[in-house]
Fold this sequence. Notes:
Elements: H1 10-22, H2 35-46, H3 64-79, H4 84-88, E1 90-93, E2 96-99, H5 111-116, E3 130-134, H6 140-148, E4 153-158, H7 161-173, E5 180-184, E6 196-201, H8 208-213, H9 234-242, E7 247-256, H10 261-267, E8 274-275, E9 285-289, H11 293-304
Helix pairs in contact: 1-2, 9-11
Residues 104-105, 107, 109, 135-138, 140-141, 158-160, 163, 186-187, 202-204, 224-225, 235 line the site of S-adenosylmethionine.
Amino acid sequence: MTFETVPQQLGDCLDWVFGIFDASPLYFGHGTDSAWDEAVQLVLQAAELPIDSGDEVLAHYLNEAQRERIAQWTQRRVDERIPLPYLTGRAWFAGLAFHCDERALVPRSPLAELIVRDYQPWWAGAAPRRILDLCCGGGAIGIAAARYNELCEVVLADISADALALAQRNVALHEVGDRVHCVQGDLFEALSNETFDLILTNPPYVDANDLAAMPSEYRVEPPLGLGSGQDGLDISRRILAQAATYLSEHGMLFLEVGNSWLALDELLKDQALSWLSFESGGHGVLAATAGELPAIAAALNKSQS
Ligand SMILES: C[S@@+](CC[C@H](N)C(=O)[O-])C[C@H]1O[C@@H](n2cnc3c(N)ncnc32)[C@H](O)[C@@H]1O
């Protein structure tokens, strides 16, 4: 594929990319959910136009460099099944743009909706002042939390130095370095004696069956961010066991476990658990107060013995 094969006018180009994506066995799960949405994202970014552009750009003429970029990204998306944000280097989360590359997962957590709606109806009183984004990857959750609440301090924690290097780039992009800090460690390891009003966490939670069946696009993402044991809950069990120690008296944990929510719900069937619902899609996020966590941890402990 070369630039000569790419139509010159943006509207025609969209149809061309859509036609190729639609005829290919692609999976759309990294920020878009259809061949058309993905074609729009690719072409607008290649043309360096705003991602929310309207029909007025359809008549726009693309230059040679833009058409070359469209040819390359389209070919690699189809041949190598690389998620689009890794090709463009950009991902959107909670309405904000982030640097995105293969050092961390493409951000897509439903926690974005919770952040945008100021943690309502779960959080009462003054806005949270200290927030931990545990297993932060490229930092989108914690940085979005900081952008939507200008008074809070945020700690971004991950075990991967590569992911944290990307998170640091995103901290600089959003100019929040005065109140967002990165720490490296195994879960809470680097956080002795610190407490938080909120812990937001999207840890690895894919169970062994789902991991084996995942579309090719997910194999481009760092494996450390996906699998978490046979039932997907190895890391989440450890988080639930330790989180209360790191929460303030009225603090809350929001833990995403995706499809593994069924396994966790079954393990904790004697507890009254709060599972969030989302208007813009997504599932498997548990809300637990600091007061509820000791009983949850004890029940999990008992289920293992
Ligand atoms: C599902 S990804 C989530 C990334 C980010 N929160 C997001 O939503 O885009 C999980 C992250 O957990 C990190 N991780 C895996 N095991 C960890 C551990 N034991 N301690 C801390 N972070 C860990 C991985 O490096 C990865 O960045």
